[in-house]
């Protein structure tokens, strides 16, 4: 991989107020999106159907013209041709030429990228092996199952040895073995310094593969960051008492009166992690409260993502 366009200290993808309104539709498909994808990360773009993920990817690749805002991909403005040469892209709806064989298709595609004959041959052979299509390399694509086509699409996206790999729903048609293959491939590529944008509905898979996430809802960015950052925002602290007295609850409430998530049970009070816990504890100690334990409650990663995807969850 030749990192000619972007320094590792720069973000691989950066957008400021990026928006898209289709046609005369007043509702933006993407609404003032500030995205920051650090170089070398596998970045999961998550959101329900219609959240604006594919539109975002389209704008980053220069396929969809933004209505407003700006962005840089690999250090270049959106749609820049030299940046596009360094991007491998697997679209959500892949249309492959049916009458070409897998090898012919990769050769054709490599020619479009300006890759030499020798490199094209070596790379496509290696990639077809990696995606598990070596045995059918010389079969026409029209005989391929959906999953086999998706595997070929992944090989095609990797053919230019890209600095940025954009995968829009790469595993929707894949069997468990295929999913494992994509996961292993991405983790291997990350070791080599690739940056990937990964768009998927399968939360378990995103959690396994990605080290950073952005959550989109109705075209708006809900949050972005590492899993730890996302989870921390939902953390709570449980205070357990040996026996409960109404004054203990009153003290806790003093520190979180507007807190809708202050929960109590027979012997415990749960507070949002942002509450000044040392202050609550010292107030309780000053009242000789029968404190037993202060326990941080960590959300399960799947729950954190579900909470952000669906605020009513
Ligand atoms: P999915 O998970 O279903 O693929 P998505 O998050 O990729 O969804 P987009 O395809 O970006 O979402 O769509 C975002 C919104 O923009 C949707 O409301 C959709 O109807 C609208 N939209 C997308 N493409 C067009 C288009 N070409 N013309 C008009 N509206 C569009």
Output the keywords.
313 residues; alpha/beta; five-stranded antiparallel β-sheet; 11 helices; 15 strands; 25% strand; binds adenosine-5'-triphosphate
Q: What topology does this entry show?
A:
Elements: E1 11-20, E2 30-33, E3 36-38, E4 42-46, H1 53-61, E5 68-73, E6 76-77, H2 81-84, E7 87-90, H3 102-112, H4 117-130, H5 146-158, E8 164-168, H6 176-191, E9 195-199, H7 203-209, E10 212-217, E11 220-226, H8 227-232, E12 236-241, H9 246-255, E13 263-264, E14 268-272, H10 277-286, E15 291-297, H11 301-309
Parallel strand pairs: 4-9, 4-10, 7-8, 8-9
Antiparallel strand pairs: 1-2, 1-3, 1-5, 5-6, 10-11, 12-14, 12-15, 13-14
The structure holds adenosine-5'-triphosphate.
Q: Any overview of this molecule?
A:
The chain is of the alpha/beta class. Helix content is 35%, strand content 25%. The chain is built from eleven helices and 15 strands. The strands form three sheets. A six-stranded mixed β-sheet has the order 7-8-9-4-10-11, sandwiched between helices. Strands 1, 2, 3, 5 and 6 form a five-stranded antiparallel β-sheet that branches. A four-stranded antiparallel β-sheet has the order 13-14-12-15, covered by helices on one side. The two termini are 42 Å apart. The model has no long low-confidence stretch (mean pLDDT 87). Adenosine-5'-triphosphate (ATP) binds at residues 22-23, 29, 47, 49-55, 92.
Largest sheet, spatial ordering of strands: 7-8-9-4-10-11
Which stretches are low in confidence, meaning pLDDT under 50 for 5 or more residues running? none
- Any idea what the radius of gyration is? 24 Å
Distinct ligand kinds: adenosine-5'-triphosphate
Order of secondary-structure elements: EEEEHEEHEHHHEHEHEEHEHEEHEH
The assigned structural class equals alpha/beta
Rough outline: elongated
What's the β-strand tally? 15
**Helix proportion:** 25-40%
**What is the distance, rounded to the nearest whole angstrom, between the alpha carbons of the first and last residues?**
42 Å
- Strand fraction: 15-25%
Figure out the total of helices. 11
Major sheet: 6 strands, mixed
Mean pLDDT: 87
């Amino acid at each position: 991989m030749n990192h000619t366009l972007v320094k590792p200290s720069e973000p691989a993808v950066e957008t400021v107020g990026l928006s898209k309104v289709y046609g005369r539709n007043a509702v933006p498909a993407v609404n003032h999106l500030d995205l920051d994808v650090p170089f070398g990360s596998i970045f999961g773009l998550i959101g329900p159907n219609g959240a604006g993920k594919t539109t975002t990817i389209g704008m980053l690749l220069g396929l969809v013209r933004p209505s407003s805002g700006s962005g840089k991909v690999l250090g270049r403005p959106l749609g820049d041709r030299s940046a596009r040469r360094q991007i491998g892209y697997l679209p959500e709806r892949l249309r492959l030429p049916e009458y070409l064989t897998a090898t012919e298709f990769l050769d054709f595609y490599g020619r479009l990228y300006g890759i030499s004959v020798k490199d094209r041959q070596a790379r496509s052979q290696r990639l077809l092996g990696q995606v598990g299509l070596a045995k059918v390399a010389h079969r026409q694509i029209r005989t391929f199952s959906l999953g086999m086509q998706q595997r070929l699409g992944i090989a095609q996206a990797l053919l230019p040895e890209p600095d940025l790999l954009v995968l829009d729903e790469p595993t929707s048609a894949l069997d468990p073995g295929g999913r494992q293959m994509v996961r292993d491939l991405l983790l291997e590529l990350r070791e080599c310094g690739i940056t990937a944008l990964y768009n998927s509905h399968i939360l378990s898979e995103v959690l396994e593969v990605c080290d950073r996430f952005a959550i989109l809802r109705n075209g708006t960015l809900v949050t972005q960051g590492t899993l730890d950052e996302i989870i921390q925002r939902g953390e709570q602290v449980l205070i357990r008492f040996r026996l409960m007295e109404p004054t203990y609850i009153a003290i806790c409430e003093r520190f979180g009166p507007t807190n809708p998530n202050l929960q109590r049970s027979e012997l415990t009070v749960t507070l949002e992690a942002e509450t000044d816990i040392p202050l609550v504890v010292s107030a309780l100690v000053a009242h000789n409260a029968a404190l037993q334990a202060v326990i941080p409650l960590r959300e399960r990663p799947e729950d954190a993502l579900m909470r952000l995807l669906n605020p009513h969850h």
